[in-house]
Write a structure and sequence with these properties.
rod-shaped, 259 residues, mainly alpha
């Protein structure tokens, strides 16, 4: 399992949405049947009491959905800004490589081109391998920087190159943290799903208690809940789904580097 992954990541987004949709309908049906049995007894809850509980459950579910969406949306936006910052840092490092000793310019720029290809996913390798390969190239670049500084310790241009290289490495670490290790906690997912299941159960229970027919609105609500969960999950998984942070800033930097 990749770093920062949770057990939920074993399920594709579409499978998770379908599973939740089905589970919600099952909980609603279970609540309806239990409510129907309770309706035959003389001592039973009043419709107003159960209605209040259902309203409270749905209100709490709406709050948790908004809370979860806020978490993933803010981190999605942070990842988008980090791509721009990293593209700028790589481009600056590439330009400042021209100030290195003549024997190092070609090798350093070749490493930076390879590094940029890895960062944009052009190589087509899994994300955990992208991280390892990026860190390997960073080590080679840092070795080149140390060698350049040893030749001329007081060189201001070489110092500026090292500064931009250091910033590039720091941004890589920040992107790894944001993408792999700053996911929505599993506890939040468990509570969100639990409240959702209980909400559908109480809605079904109220319908059975009042001896109402099964409303198609429950099906629509289950579809809506599944769609929102799909959206939240999609934004929480950087390397999966339809909502992905655009790599265009880094691609533009790669085109600037040439071949």
């Amino acid at each position: 399992m990749p770093p920062g992954a949770s057990p939920l990541d074993q399920l594709p987004i579409w499978a998770l949405s379908i599973l939740l949709f089905s589970a919600n309908l099952l909980f609603a049906e279970g609540g309806f049947r239990i409510g129907s049995l309770r309706a035959t007894r003389a001592a039973k809850e009043g419709d107003a009491t159960v209605g209040t509980i259902v309203s409270a459950e749905l209100g709490l579910l709406a709050f948790l959905l908004a809370f979860s969406f806020g978490i993933v949306a803010s981190r999605f936006d942070a990842r988008r800004h980090m791509v721009i910052d990293e593209a700028n840092a790589i481009g600056t490092t590439f330009l400042r490589a021209a100030t290195l000793p003549e024997s190092q310019i070609a090798s350093v720029r070749r490493l930076l081109r390879t590094y940029t290809d890895v960062r944009t996913g052009i190589t087509g390798v899994p994300i955990d391998q992208v991280v390892r390969r990026s860190e390997e190239i960073q080590q080679h670049l840092w070795t080149e920087a140390v060698a350049a500084a040893a030749q001329d310790p007081r060189s201001i241009p070489i110092g500026l190159f090292i500064q931009s290289l250091n910033e590039m490495i720091d941004l890589h670490a920040r992107r790894v943290m944001a993408a792999l290790r700053s996911r929505m906690p599993l506890t939040v997912w468990v509570v969100l799903f639990g409240v959702g299941f209980l909400s559908f159960f109480t809605m079904g229970y109220q319908a059975g208690l009042t001896r109402a027919f099964r409303s198609p609105a429950v099906l629509i609500l289950a579809l809506t809940f599944g769609a929102v969960i799909w959206l939240i999950t999609d934004m929480d998984r950087p390397g999966e789904g339809f909502l992905r942070v655009s790599q265009e800033p880094i691609l533009e930097t790669r085109r600037m580097m040439g071949n």
